[in-house]
Amino acid sequence: MPTFAAADLEQLASQLLQGAGTPPELAAIVADHLIEANLAGHDSHGVLRVLQYVDFIQNGHIKPAGKARVVERFTAGAVIDGSHGLGQVIGREATLLAIEIARECGMGGVTVRNCHHTGRIGTYTLMIAEAGMIGMCFVNSGGGAQAVLPFGGMKRRLSTNPISISAPQADGPPLVVDMSTTVAPEGKVRAKYQAGKPAPDGWLVDSEGRPTNDASLLYADPPGALVPLGGSVGYKGYCLALMIDILAGVLTGAGGCAPDRAYPGDGLFVMAIDIARFQPLADFSQRVRDLAEYMHATPTMPGVDRVLVPGEIELQRKAALLESGLYVEDGTWNMLLVLCEKFGVTPPAEK
């Protein structure tokens, strides 16, 4: 598998998006978001998504110059129409607005409709935490991209409906939870499929509801499905996904899951909470730090070196990958090379 310096891969992603018609300043936002996802170890939301985005730009689903349009602004929130733009651009604008409103009102909630795939939503809550606030973010696919079984069901009814929550801590990076409500997000299955690798146990079932490791079956006809988080208690992941569909789909106007809903498009609900309105930020951040250290001090199970808190493993991966470089699966790289030839982009040299 070819390996590249993160900066070179980011430049490639930006150039390919520009080749498809994205304005340079917006392509840079998306490329930065994608490579940060790769550096965090979330390849499912990394550079492989360029292939999908270029395809959707070319077939008219994405308007690459689309920006956030504020439909309504009220005391503690706002409604945004994403103008069918790139989700990372719209998500960033919505997050900045949520922070602005929270500074004014103590809390800021922003709903988004009519935007494309918003990427790794931990990016948005991390922005909020770095502003000294608590961040929350919920996403659905606008009622489309239904790839998940409801607990006990045999037909796909939900998308992976991720959730992210973040909080600042004193003398350390923010704590950030960023997870799908399925055992694995669709993008991780996509990465396995493009690499020609099997999916791990417990991720998927085939069209008959039988457990499978064949990642291609998620995209077959009839398709397999992702299973909700929780295994034998998967009703917990299912219920969480359903409520996120209400917050990110129904409330935003993007649409909840229903028959014949068409992807692409995300519904996004992002909230910022200004901690300083409730208690001094320094006190809060220190208490979060104390809580994290209490977790770190936990005696560990055999084979476990240290108990981690949310967000730590991503930072460890980033440090390592900045040193070693980012690898791209052969199947994904070959498809990126096709785009390079199409748009006249020179591929970067391997690290």
Number of helices: 10
Number of strands: 12
Superfamily at the CATH H level of the largest domain? Malate/L-lactate/L-sulpholactate dehydrogenase, NADPH binding domain
Shape: globular
| Main sheet attributes: strand count, strand direction, barrel closure | 7 strands, mixed
SSE sequence, one letter per element = EHHHEEHEHEEEHEEEHEHHEH
Strand content: 15-25%
Gap from first CA to last CA: 11 Å
Which runs of at least 5 residues are low in confidence (pLDDT < 50)? none
CATH topology label of the largest domain: Ribosomal Protein S8, Chain: A, domain 1
Mean of the pLDDT scores? 95
Question: Would you write up a description of this structure?
Answer:
This protein folds into two domains: 3-183 and 227-282 and 311-343, Malate/L-lactate/L-sulpholactate dehydrogenase, NADPH binding domain (Ribosomal Protein S8, Chain: A, domain 1), CATH 3.30.1370.60; 184-226, Wheat Germ Agglutinin (Isolectin 2), domain 1 (2-Layer Sandwich). Strands 2-3-4-11-5-6-7 form a seven-stranded mixed β-sheet, sandwiched between helices. It has a three-stranded antiparallel β-sheet with strand order 9-8-10, with no helix packed on it. A two-stranded antiparallel ribbon has the order 1-12. Strand 6 and strand 7 (172-179) form a beta hairpin. It is built from ten helices and twelve strands. It has helices at 6-19, 24-39, 49-58, 87-105, 122-130, 186-195, 235-250, 281-296, 312-324, 330-343, and strands at residues 3-4, 69-74, 77-85, 107-115, 133-140, 163-169, 172-179, 204-205, 211-212, 225-226, 266-274, 326-327. By secondary structure, it is α+β, with helices and mostly antiparallel strands. Helix 1 packs antiparallel against helix 2 (24-39) and helix 4 packs parallel to helix 5 (122-130). The chain is globular and about 55 Å long.
